[in-house]
From TrEMBL:
Database matches in Pfam families: Sel1
Protein known as: Sel1 repeat-containing protein 1-like
InterPro entries from the UniProt entry: HcpB-like, Sel1-like, TPR-like_helical_dom_sf
Similarity annotation: Belongs to the hcp beta-lactamase family.
Domain of life: Eukaryota
Claim: Repeat is one of the keywords in the record: yes
Annotated Gene Ontology cellular component terms: mitochondrial intermembrane space
Keywords recorded for this protein, A-Z: Repeat
Length: 251
């Protein structure tokens, strides 16, 4: 059937038929990619977050679809489609997604396990979180590489209360789980930049300018600053809500 998408009635009919198609592909053909698309449809078109959460969760656990684990983990984290947020449940689903090789799940699990501050209820486990972040970075997730770079840039203290970000000289004698390592920080920032992270590119520029972790090179500093600006401009001009995430590489 041909649709005239200039006509409101045709658009409505097209959207309804799309939902029917996704339901058939998910419930009858049991295709995990289509189940994920169904959940995206329920989320983006129907605004039925409770049903979307159920489909994401089922698709994660029954059909082992990593991207659905990530989405349900995000729902649990902010309490969407649920009575209240549950960061422990979120971590469970991020870890499941990471086992299923979804880099975004690995990133989110790593951040939850290494983060500190108000509202963080997950037990801190830096070594475990580091491994999740490394797996994500190795799978070319730009944010994971950028996050790891930051960990090496400042170091990860054993006791967060001992760390003073405003007086670095006072941090020399504290115990670290990950010691500051400018060279590692630079290498990971470079990776993140290569994968398209504008913040990583900005850090590479700054490190070249200061000679932190790499030999000082003002020309290269300028080059990476310009690259960061280009990525920033590109990001701002292509902001959009994406549908059909089930067939994309990232959430």
């Amino acid at each position: 059937m041909a649709y005239d998408l200039q006509k409101e009635e045709d658009v409505k009919q097209y959207i309804e038929n799309l939902g029917i198609e996704y339901r058939f592909g998910c419930y009858h053909e049991k295709k995990s990619e289509v189940c994920h698309l169904l959940a995206d449809y329920l989320e983006a078109i129907k605004k039925d977050y409770k049903k979307a959460a159920t489909v994401y969760k089922t698709n994660c656990m029954d059909y082992k679809y990593g991207k659905s684990c990530t989405k349900y983990g995000n729902y649990a984290l902010i309490g969407r489609g649920k009575d209240k947020p549950d960061s422990k449940e979120a971590l469970e689903y991020f870890e499941k997604g990471c086992e299923l090789n979804d880099p975004t799940s690995c990133l989110h699990a790593g951040v939850l396990l290494t983060a500190t501050g108000p509202g963080v209820t997950v037990q801190r486990d830096v070594p475990k979180g580091y491994n999740y972040l490394k797996k994500s970075c190795d799978a070319r997730d730009d944010m994971a590489c950028h996050y790891l770079s930051g960990m090496y840039l400042t170091g990860v203290p054993k006791n967060v209360a001992d760390f003073n970000p405003h007086k670095p000289e006072k941090n020399k004698n504290i115990d670290y789980l990950i010691k500051p390592d400018p060279k590692q920080a630079f290498n990971l920032a470079m990776k993140g930049c290569e994968y398209g992270n504008l913040f990583a590119c900005a850090n590479v520029s700054l490190m070249y300018k200061k000679g932190d972790g790499v030999e000082q090179d003002l020309e290269k500093s300028k080059k990476f600053f310009q690259l960061a600006q280009s990525l920033k401009n590109a990001h701002e001009t292509t902001k959009e809500i994406k549908f059909q995430q089930g067939l994309e590489d990232k959430q």
